[in-house]
TrEMBL record:
Cellular component terms (Gene Ontology): cytoplasm
Entry's Gene Ontology BP terms: N-acylphosphatidylethanolamine metabolic process
Transmembrane segments: 129-153
Record protein name field: LRAT domain-containing protein
Position of the signal peptide: none
Family: Belongs to the H-rev107 family.
UniProtKB keywords: Hydrolase, Lipid metabolism, Membrane, Transferase, Transmembrane, Transmembrane helix
Length: 163
């Protein structure tokens, strides 16, 4: 994981909120731009899952992080080429104050910052949840198949005994 002490403009900041991660993009001078709850409350929280919009905010990194831990994590640099820094910063600044759609599966803070840095919205948190859900559904499907086979075999045994 990336962890230089001082973020550079365009760096993605992962903030550990306990149970989930919040994301922001560093824009220089100690500031980040991020999606926040569409209230006066500041940084995203678990409550934001229930909201359908979020506000783009520019705030001091330390204010957004609060007492939580954070790291610099340009999570897709090994798969995608980052956009030019000037474009990232210009686009990020142009969105400050705007209210955007928010959806935990398709429009969350991680999608927002990866769209700015890489030009495409991605969320590893959502992908991991989908993969976990797919694995659970796979196990359930196998269990249902086995149960169906056993039930059919049992039914055949009963029919044989009745003859």
């Amino acid at each position: 994981l990336d962890s230089p002490l001082e973020p550079k403009p365009g760096d993605l900041i992962e903030i550990f909120r306990g149970g989930y991660q919040h994301w922001a993009i560093y824009v220089g001078d100690g500031n980040v731009i991020h999606l926040a709850e569409n209230t006066d409350a500041g940084a995203c929280s678990v409550k934001s899952v229930l909201q359908d919009s979020a506000k783009v905010m520019k705030e001091k990194l330390q204010k957004v992080v609060g007492n939580d831990k954070f790291q610099i994590r340009n999570l897709l640099d090994d798969k995608c080429t980052p956009r030019p820094i000037e474009d990232i910063l210009q686009d990020a600044e142009s969105l400050v104050g705007k209210v955007l759609p928010y959806d935990v599966a398709t429009h969350k803070c991680e999608h927002f910052i990866t769209l700015l840095r890489y030009g495409m919205p991605r969320s590893q948190q959502v992908q991991e949840a989908v993969m976990a859900g797919t694995a659970i559904l796979g196990v359930l499907a196998v269990g249902a198949l086995v149960f169906g086979i056993l039930a059919a075999a049992s039914s055949e045994d009963e029919n044989e005994e009745k003859k």
